[in-house]
Write a structure and sequence with these properties.
The chain is 72% helix and 0% strand. By secondary structure, the protein is mainly α. It starts with a helix and ends in a 14-residue tail after the last helix. The C terminus is likely disordered.
């Protein structure tokens, strides 16, 4: 295998790994919704936008015959649809909107995963010289840095109801 082919394979693998990692961050929200039987601290919009994004990329991957895009986005679409269905099952008719200066509702692990995923797909698009892969992933990098800034400006507070065990 030549050096360019090896680099492309490694980058493709990194894209798949980081993307599947990003999709799996919703599993903690899924567990939380099932345990609390509510959606109090879970945001719906990331599930919806990621699902629409997965379906769009799945279509593009099918048009290009790119199995990296097809496989990762098929898995992502299934997971995001599952998250949406569970969310809809547990959501109540009255939605609360809290305007606070708190990052408690932001997922730090999702922010890291989004940065790694968007960056790896951007590099993959550069390697393929495909602006249709590069351009849509640039906002993910940009918004990740905005969220990192928010985490720095408004650090998450420890849960006040949690008490350390005394020995």
């Amino acid at each position: 295998m030549e050096a360019g082919g090896l680099a492309d394979s490694l980058l493709s693998g990194a894209c798949v790994l980081f993307t599947l990692g990003m999709f799996s961050t919703g599993l903690s929200d899924l567990k939380h919704m099932r345990m609390t039987r509510s959606v109090d601290s879970v945001q719906f919009l990331p599930f919806l936008t990621t699902d629409v994004n997965n379906l769009s990329w799945l279509s593009y991957g099918a048009l290009k015959g790119n199995w990296t895009l097809i496989v990762v986005n098929a898995v992502g679409a299934v997971l995001q649809t599952l998250y949406i269905l569970v969310y809809l099952h547990y959501c109540h008719r009255k939605a609360k909107v809290l305007r606070t200066k708190s990052t408690q509702r932001l997922s730090f692990s999702l922010t890291i995963a989004t940065l790694l995923t968007s960056a790896s797909w951007t590099f993959y698009g550069f390697r393929l010289k495909d602006p249709y892969i590069v351009v849509p992933n640039l906002p993910g990098i940009f918004t990740s840095f905005i969220r990192f800034w928010l985490f720095w400006k408004y650090p998450q507070e420890q849960d006040r109801n949690y008490q350390l065990l005394q020995t």
